[in-house]
Amino acid sequence: MARTIGITTADDIATGLVDGNQLVGKLRIYEQGAEDDPLLSLPPDGIAQRFADEITAVAAGQNVDAIGVGVPGIINCGFVEESPNLRQLKGAHMQDLVAAALRDRGITAPVYVYNDADVLAAGLAATHGHLDRFIRVWTLGNGIGYGLYPRREGVWEGGHAVVSLDPRERYCGCGGVGHLEGIMGQRAMRLRFLDMEPDEIFENAQKRDQRCVEFVKLWHRALAAATANSIHMEGPGKFFVSGFNAKHLDINLLHQYLHEMVKMSPLQSYVFEVVPSSDINGVIGAAVSAGQNAAV
């Protein structure tokens, strides 16, 4: 059985050793402070060095078969084509940078870099016994991630799906108009409601504040629209929802809006499951994906 290491950057930098699709020991967490995010202040080579430090600490002198890294953005064979949330990574070949940093530390295992939502999908597939089927995951956090398992060729930036034709909907961090992330993302909600935090928006909606009530409806309808687009293109199936803002999801309201949008009966066999936000699933997914690539 392959022993692999996974590392992700979803909230903090989380790294772990994985064997048989299970975490071995504890996660190693490098906490990123809200005011002093080390990744935002580092160039690509500096980020690679940080990753290598964490991976080396977890390896602890053991031989490993492969290393998987999850980062935000459009990833093509280890090359970061675009990363709105870590803009300095655009154009960086992170796979080569991390591999070189690890060689300097005596680690020669192959390195694979993936989109962070895709590794979460792989982790959920591994931990829920779904490695034999197609699953999708929405991650509701600072941005909106969309991951698939098994990974398919394509861009799959579902968080930037256009769900509104209103030209005023321009809160997405990438600058695009009408994007899902421009409605549901943490940054977007803060820009829209300058007088309250996202958690307060949902709390005030419960208190019948009309402005907040209407936004919460829009928030759910936007996710329903993006999900309906996925179903119409890729078919129904299992959708996981995770991330720190998944706690605000009303599954019944989401189903109500989605039922209005998906009317063809063969496409109505979709299922949602909300899973707690956890670095473990992403780390396992990065490691499992790397192990699968190394075995090909």
In this structure, how is the largest beta sheet organized? 5 strands, mixed
Q: What order do the helices and strands follow?
A: EEEHHEEEHEHEEHHHHEHEH
Write out the strand line-up for the largest beta sheet, numbering strands in chain order: 3-2-1-4-7
Could you say which structural class the secondary elements and strand pairing correspond to? alpha/beta
Count of extended strands: 11
Oligomer: single chain
Q: What value does the average pLDDT take? A: 94
Quick rundown:
The chain has 296 residues and is of the alpha/beta class.
Notable features of this structure?
four-stranded mixed sheet, 296 residues, five-stranded mixed sheet, 10 helices
Which secondary structure elements does this structure contain, and how are they paired or packed?
Blueprint (H helix, E strand, L loop, with lengths): L2 E6 L4 E7 L2 E9 L7 H4 L2 H16 L6 E6 L2 E3 L2 E4 L11 H10 L7 E5 H12 L7 E6 L3 E6 L31 H4 L1 H7 L5 H9 L3 H25 L3 E5 L8 H11 L9 E4 L4 H17 L1
Parallel strand pairs: 1-4, 4-7, 8-10, 10-11
Antiparallel strand pairs: 1-2, 2-3, 5-6, 8-9
Helix pairs in contact: 2-3, 4-10, 7-8, 8-9
